C-alpha cells in the first residue's frame, strides 16, 4: 500500500481537499485503484450536529456516516464509495482509545497520547486504507490522506506525530508528503516567506515534504520557484504551481502539465505495482473524458440560470454538493451555468415591509430564472419564502427541483393552494399543529431525544410505482424500476394525504419498500416539477451527474429530448 499525505500551512481553506482529490484522480488515470481518508482535528464525533453556517455542508455516505464535505470531493473526483471510517475525527479517536481503556485492553498501563493514541491513529489508517471502495472489490493501491486544519495548530498535534511515526512504519518508498502553502502577492511581488516558515514548522515536527504545492492567485515566476526550492530544501521539480484557474476541474490538468505524476511514480515506485492492460486502458479513457469535460466548462454557447432558494446562502459551502451537481449537469448538457443566489427569507412579505429593495431583487431573480431549486435544510426560518418559490414554479411552468425540505415545502404549497388546506404546514415548523393540518409529519421510528446520527440516513432504495412510465424523472433515470440514493431526514409527507394529493395531479412516482413513504413526486402537465425526499447531490460525480439535477438543467435549457436520446456523452467508452 502506498500513502500520499496532503497537509496545509499558513492558512486554513487553502485548497487541500481539491488537491488531494485531484491527485487521487490523476493516480486513477495511471490505472491505479485509489482511496482516501480525511483527518479532522475537531472534537465532534462527526459533522452531523454542526451548523452548515459554521462548518459548511454535512456530507452523507452510503453507510449513513455524516462527514466533512471533503469526502464528497473525493467521491466525486475519484468515483469511489467511502465509509464513515474514512473520516477520522479527534472525537472518534479519543472515544475509541477511552473505550479500549475502559475494557482493560491496555492491561493497566498509563494511557497516553504517545504511544497509545498515536498507535490507534496509525492502526486506523492502515485498516481503513485497505477497504475496497469500488465495484472491483479489490484492495486499493494508493491511499490519499488529507490532514485537516493547519500544521502547527494544537488540535492537529497528535495526528502530525502519528504521521511522523507512520512514515517509518510503512517505509520511505511507501510514504509521500505534499504540503500545500500560500504564496501571497503583495504590491505585485510574490512573497515566499510564509511558505518558508510553514516548511520550517513542518520539519521541526519531523515531517519533510516531498512536494510543495504553492497556492497563488497568479502563475508563479521562475525566480519564485527557484527561491522556494532553495530555502525549503527541495528540487524545483518538487515545487508545484497551483495558481487560480477557470474551475477546480482544471486543477488535475494543471498538475498533470507540471509532471506531478512522473515525480510521484518515481518517488513511490508505482511502476512496481502490477497492472493489467484493462486497468491502463481504463485510466487512459478516464483522462480523455476528463479533458473533454473540462474543455466544455464555460465555453458552451447556451446558458442557463438556476435560482437556488435556500436558508444558508451566506456560506455557499453549505450547498457545496448542490453546486457541484448543478455544475456536473450543466457541463454534461453543454450549457453555461449561472446560479442566482436567493435567501428564502427575502421572498417573504415581512421583507417587503422591512426592505423593499431586497424583496424586489430576490423576486427578480426567481421570476427571471430558467429553473428553480430548493435544497435541504432544517427549521422554520425561510420556509414561507421557499413555499412561495415553489408556488411560482408550479404556476409559471418553470422547471423545479426540490430536495428533502424542498419536497416538503412544495407539498405544503400544493396542499394549501390546490387541496384547500389553508393552514397546512409541517410538524417541524409548528409542533402543536392539529393532525388534520399536518402535511409533513415526524417519522415514527426516529429518536427524538438524541441529535447525532439519529435521522434516516444513508443509501436506501426507492421503487417507481406501477403506471409511472410517463414520468420524466423515471426516464432520466433510464426507465429503471428502482434507484438507490442517500437520505438525511427526520420528517416525511403525511401518508394519510397521499391519495388526495395524487387525485389532484401531484404524483408520488417513487416510494420506499413499504409503498407508504414518499420518495419522489412529479407534477403532471408540467415541463419538470420534481422533488425527492432523498439527497441526490450526494451521489453526483464529475463525469456522472446526478439524474434529478440533470433533468432540471435539461428542462431549463430546453434540451430534455437530446439528453434522453444520449446525445451528450463524453468521449471514451468506459464508464467512470
UniProtKB/TrEMBL annotation:
Entry protein name: CTP synthase
Pathway annotation: Pyrimidine metabolism; CTP biosynthesis via de novo pathway; CTP from UDP: step 2/2
One GO MF term: identical protein binding
A biological process term (GO) from this entry: 'de novo' CTP biosynthetic process
InterPro entries with a match to the protein in the record: Class_I_gatase-like (IPR029062), CTP_synthase (IPR004468), CTP_synthase_N (IPR017456), GATASE (IPR017926), GATase1_CTP_Synthase (IPR033828), P-loop_NTPase (IPR027417)
Broadest EC class assigned to this enzyme: ligase
Domain Glutamine amidotransferase stretches: 315-553
Amino acid at each position: 500500500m502506498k500513502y500520499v499525505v496532503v497537509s496545509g500551512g499558513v492558512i486554513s481553506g487553502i485548497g487541500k481537499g481539491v488537491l488531494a482529490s485531484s491527485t487521487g484522480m490523476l493516480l486513477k488515470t495511471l490505472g491505479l485503484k485509489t482511496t482516501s481518508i480525511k483527518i479532522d482535528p475537531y472534537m465532534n464525533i462527526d459533522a452531523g450536529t454542526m451548523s452548515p453556517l459554521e462548518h459548511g455542508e454535512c456530507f452523507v455516505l452510503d453507510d449513513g456516516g455524516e462527514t466533512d464535505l471533503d469526502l464528497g470531493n473525493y467521491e466525486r473526483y475519484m468515483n469511489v464509495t467511502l465509509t464513515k471510517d474514512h473520516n477520522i475525527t479527534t472525537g472518534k479517536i479519543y472515544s475509541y482509545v477511552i473505550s479500549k481503556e475502559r475494557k482493560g485492553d491496555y492491561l493497566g498501563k498509563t494511557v497516553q497520547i504517545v504511544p497509545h493514541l498515536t498507535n490507534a491513529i496509525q492502526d486506523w489508517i492502515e485498516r481503513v486504507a485497505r477497504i475496497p471502495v469500488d465495484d472491483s472489490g479489490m484492495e486499493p493501491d494508493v491511499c490519499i490522506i488529507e490532514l485537516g486544519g493547519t500544521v502547527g495548530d494544537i488540535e492537529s498535534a497528535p495526528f502530525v506525530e502519528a504521521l511522523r511515526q507512520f512514515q517509518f512504519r510503512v517505509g520511505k518508498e511507501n510514504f509521500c508528503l505534499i504540503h500545500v502553502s500560500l504564496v501571497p502577492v503583495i504590491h505585485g511581488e510574490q512573497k515566499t516567506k510564509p511558505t518558508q516558515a510553514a516548511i520550517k514548522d513542518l520539519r521541526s515536527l519531523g515531517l519533510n515534504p516531498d512536494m510543495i504545492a504553492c497556492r497563488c492567485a497568479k502563475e508563479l515566476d521562475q525566480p519564485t520557484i527557484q527561491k522556494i526550492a532553495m530555502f525549503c530544501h527541495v528540487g524545483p521539480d518538487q515545487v508545484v504551481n497551483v495558481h487560480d484557474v477557470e474551475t477546480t476541474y482544471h486543477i488535475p490538468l494543471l498538475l498533470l502539465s507540471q509532471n506531478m505524476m512522473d515525480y510521484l511514480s518515481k518517488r513511490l515506485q508505482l511502476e512496481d505495482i502490477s497492472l493489467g492492460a484493462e486497468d491502463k486502458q481504463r485510466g487512459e479513457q478516464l483522462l480523455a473524458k476528463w479533458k473533454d469535460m473540462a474543455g466544455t466548462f464555460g465555453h458552451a454557447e447556451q446558458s442557463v440560470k438556476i435560482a437556488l432558494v435556500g436558508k444558508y446562502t451566506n456560506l455557499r459551502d453549505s450547498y457545496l454538493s448542490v453546486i457541484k451537481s448543478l455544475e456536473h449537469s450543466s457541463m454534461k448538457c453543454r450549457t453555461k451555468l449561472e446560479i442566482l443566489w436567493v435567501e428564502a427569507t427575502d421572498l417573504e412579505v415581512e421583507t417587503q415591509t422591512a426592505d423593499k429593495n431586497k424583496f424586489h431583487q430576490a423576486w427578480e431573480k426567481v421570476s427571471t430564472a430558467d429553473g428553480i431549486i430548493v435544497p435541504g435544510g432544517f427549521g422554520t426560518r425561510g420556509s414561507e419564502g421557499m413555499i412561495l418559490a415553489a408556488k411560482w414554479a408550479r404556476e409559471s411552468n418553470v422547471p423545479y427541483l426540490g430536495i428533502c425540505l424542498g419536497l416538503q415545502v412544495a407539498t405544503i404549497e400544493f396542499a394549501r393552494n390546490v387541496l384547500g388546506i389553508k393552514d397546512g404546514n409541517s410538524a417541524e415548523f409548528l409542533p402543536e399543529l392539529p393532525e388534520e393540518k399536518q402535511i409533513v409529519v415526524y417519522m415514527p421510528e426516529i429518536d427524538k431525544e438524541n441529535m447525532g446520527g439519529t435521522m434516516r440516513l444513508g443509501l436506501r432504495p426507492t421503487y417507481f410505482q406501477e403506471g409511472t412510465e410517463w414520468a420524466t424523472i423515471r426516464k432520466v433515470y433510464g426507465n429503471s424500476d428502482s434507484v438507490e440514493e442517500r437520505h438525511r431526514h427526520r420528517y416525511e409527507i403525511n401518508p394519510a394525504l397521499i391519495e388526495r394529493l395524487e387525485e389532484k395531479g401531484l404524483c408520488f412516482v417513487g416510494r420506499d419498500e413499504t409503498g407508504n413513504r414518499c420518495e419522489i413526486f412529479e407534477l403532471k402537465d408540467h415541463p419538470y416539477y420534481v422533488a425527492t425526499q432523498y439527497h441526490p447531490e450526494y451521489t453526483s460525480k464529475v463525469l456522472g451527474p446526478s439524474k434529478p439535477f440533470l433533468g432540471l438543467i435539461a428542462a431549463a435549457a430546453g434540451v430534455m429530448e437530446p439528453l434522453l436520446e444520449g446525445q451528450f456523452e463524453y468521449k471514451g467508452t468506459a464508464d467512470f
